[in-house]
Amino acid sequence: MYNKAIFLDRDGVINQTIIKNGKPYPPSDFNEFEILPSVKQALQLLHEDHYLLIVVTNQPDVGDKKQKQETVESFHQFLLNNFPLKDIVVCFDRNSFCYKPKPGMILNSAKKHNINCKKSYMIGDRWVDIEAGKAAGCKTVFIDYKYQEALK
Q: What are 127-151's pLDDT values in tens digits?
């Protein structure tokens, strides 16, 4: 039997983004890492409805040497310890098949956790999240913050 999942982008879906010149950026440290209101309750309800909850997040600042990988890992450990998440998958390399809008993180997670993507959702706040979800065969939910960035 296949599982159903909710794939979640991290920044802008789980935690607050840092807006600079109308564009979203990830938090740089725990002082900026703020969980969005009602996220814990929403994730608990989805978990109780038997969805696997998997965060799939691009973190190019690590690959670009603007952010320490240890900082990103500490954010993720906090999330795993405090929320009913099955997994957190991160991609640092802009050229990887796993880097959204490519569907690699979702497809690899689906294989690892025996997930049926057609019964699953991708929730994101940027076009790359939605494109990755569609490419993997998931239904998608777009959270529109009206960022000042080009849409594909």
A: 999 999 999 999 999 999 988 876 6
Q: Is 9 a catalytic residue?
A: yes
- 147 domain-assigned: no
* Strand-by-strand arrangement of the 121-124 sheet: 87-91, 51-58, 4-8, 121-124, 139-142
The verdict on whether 125 is a catalytic residue reads: no
pLDDT tens digits for range 70-89 = 999 999 999 999 999 999 99
Q: Looking at residue 93, which CATH number applies to its domain?
A: 3.40.50.1000
Note the pTM of the prediction, 2 decimals: 0.95
Rounded Cα gap, residues 58 and 51, in angstroms:
22
Query: Of the residues 9, 64, 125, 129, which is catalytic?
Result: 9
Among 11, 29, 61, 129, the one annotated catalytic? 11
What is the domain count for the chain? 1
Residue 148 lies in a domain: no
